[in-house]
Sequence to fold (630 residues):
Amino acid sequence: MKIDFERAVELLKEKNNFLVLTHANPDGDTIGGGLALVYALRKAGKRARLINNDEIPQKYSYLFENLQEDDFCEEFIVSVDVAEKKLLGSELTEKYGDKVDLAIDHHSSSKLFAKETYTETDSASACEVVYLLIKAMGVEINKDIANCLFTGCSTDTGCFKYANVTARTHLIAAELISAGAENGKINAKMFDSKTKSSIMLEKMCLNRLKFFADGKVALITVTKEMFEETGAVKSDLDIIKPLTRQIEGVKIGVTIKYEGNAIGVSIRSNEDYDASEICKHFGGGGHIRAAGCEFREPIEEVEKKVISYILENVI
Amino acid sequence: MKIDFERAVELLKEKNNFLVLTHANPDGDTIGGGLALVYALRKAGKRARLINNDEIPQKYSYLFENLQEDDFCEEFIVSVDVAEKKLLGSELTEKYGDKVDLAIDHHSSSKLFAKETYTETDSASACEVVYLLIKAMGVEINKDIANCLFTGCSTDTGCFKYANVTARTHLIAAELISAGAENGKINAKMFDSKTKSSIMLEKMCLNRLKFFADGKVALITVTKEMFEETGAVKSDLDIIKPLTRQIEGVKIGVTIKYEGNAIGVSIRSNEDYDASEICKHFGGGGHIRAAGCEFREPIEEVEKKVISYILENVI
Fold:
């Protein structure tokens, strides 16, 4: 059931012993939003802890420096930035998939899997929504909370670059910086910190870039061998995914990548095309300009399927 | 002579028939700030026009769509984002170098070459300063002005990424968006629009990347032949210049590039090093984290000189 802002604030103020869940393959928005909520709930005198299906990438470790462990029996389960049950990841889906009390989200593809869902689809990040909720709870934003929320606001918008950024996004960024967010350091870590492996991976991807439909569709495929050869890790793909869309004339950018037990597909689109619609066709979802889906078949097959579908039905 | 904010506003309000000058090799900040000032002065019932030593790169043409030509005899000369006389470019330096009445700037290397200079060295862009001046003149920011100022605020900060971005920068961005700035479109044009030639150039640069001092110094050299082979143009270098600093462990990133009649050197630094100090040694200048200098000798010689100086005296 969808609920309004007041009801979401009421739940956060009334309940206690919170378990906060992020989505699988956690990014800056789900981690930043989830952890900010934990810090804020504790500041409001409650108990709260964060759990994730997958390991938190090393680059986000600065957010956890001041986090004290706490173990208690959970009473109220909140998810942040999770559009549907299965995106919690296999373990968390099994354990908590049907038990989420409140989902805080901003995806247009949100499946309302929780008992109550507060979603703002015109919000550039889940962290923007969490910011408003924390303020409405009457909790003062301290440096820890500010760093968490700034990380999500910045990473989910390509550092304030994407078209979903509104005046409100910038106002919130300003308030977070005033509250102590280390914007320069965070952005340098998130956007200007390429490992040598990721630079090698990028070089390889540029060498293997393919175009279709008169350059309107661009494809990068990242195979298992490319990871092995460069020593790059999964989070290095964050730099690769936006690459295709950045090329002049490209309307739909497709990145297909080896992800261990599955093949992940990231689609980025420009203006006239809806990435989330394309991904929905393959059982995925996301935002209008950035979406994803998953396959369990050989990477060459996935390439053929996705590209043929786009060429025949979309472009 | 340095003047205060009130005096700068007074000059803009009192004078008429403005000639506004940008710096040579114009970027988004000098163009956006200069043109915003022209639009604002005209809105205040004055005559004003912009002139540049070098051609405006095509990618900024959207800012000029609503600009009417105006020819009149100039009475008051203002420069925007110009730190010293020679940066006006050879022709403009000769013609106006000693005649600038008011310099509006934000460089720490500002040489106070104008009769009066208003400079805010802690401002992330010249456009931030121009925004405050326009507001104080009592001119309402319309869409044209907002697009110009947003372009400068965004391009001079790597899309709000760099450490010089303050809460004020984001507040101004929020106000500009509210006043009609097309942030999504502008950022896509500035940061997500790589030509195929520039992608080829990037690939080549990554292939030729060199490291010194245990990876603390990175060097990219862009030769005449690389431009010829890829068909890339000068403004494609905007994507290349930040590359070196983005690599993990790199403290000083050096990009040396063929620029027709000169060899340009761009230095980007992290935390502990001052790029502007290094460039000053070679007669250049700029900001603490991003600066430049120029040579007129073979590119291999420039490489040797700059790298030896850094290895022996800086790192």
Summary: Chain B has two domains: 5-191, 196-313.
